[in-house]
Sequence to fold (182 residues):
Amino acid sequence: MDVASAPSDAEVVARVLGGDREAFGLVIRRYEPGLLRYAARMLGSRDAAADAVAEGLVRAYRHLASCRDPARLRTWLYRIVANRCKSHLARRATADVSLDEAPPVADPRDTEAAVERAEQLVLVERALRTLSPEKQEAFVLKHVEGMSYEEMAAATGERIPTLKMRVHRAREALLQALEEYR
Fold:
């Protein structure tokens, strides 16, 4: 199905609420990859991200009727997953580090540039985890997920000026953290 013939979010929501349970699969296919990227950045672990997204999607399905503006389904889903991520962060002890969260080992066959990019990505990921959850969330929504400040406000429930300040402070903190790693 091409994008032009794909049903809108509002149409998909109406179908699900009308009893077409299979239609929620469209929501999952449409938004799960971005939600997983977002959650992985927030939690620093693919496994924890998959759990948070799965919990969020189940919650979204159960409470779909409470989505006040189905045309803005994307931001509603990000808000749910953001809350799941915050719950995971609150439960997780900071001393617990799994092998999944360890930096990847570089493949010796990789070119030098690819190894350098991988090392830089590890440094950015590590620096990102030093931020407060609020700054981390704002930075990831803006610079990883590419949301506008209006979308971010809808997803987080925060005011736009607050989000702009968090993104700005997150950038500054990331730059400072990256300088310290060098």
Remarks:
- Residues 1-94 form a domain with the Rna Polymerase Sigma Factor; Chain: A fold (CATH 1.10.1740.10).
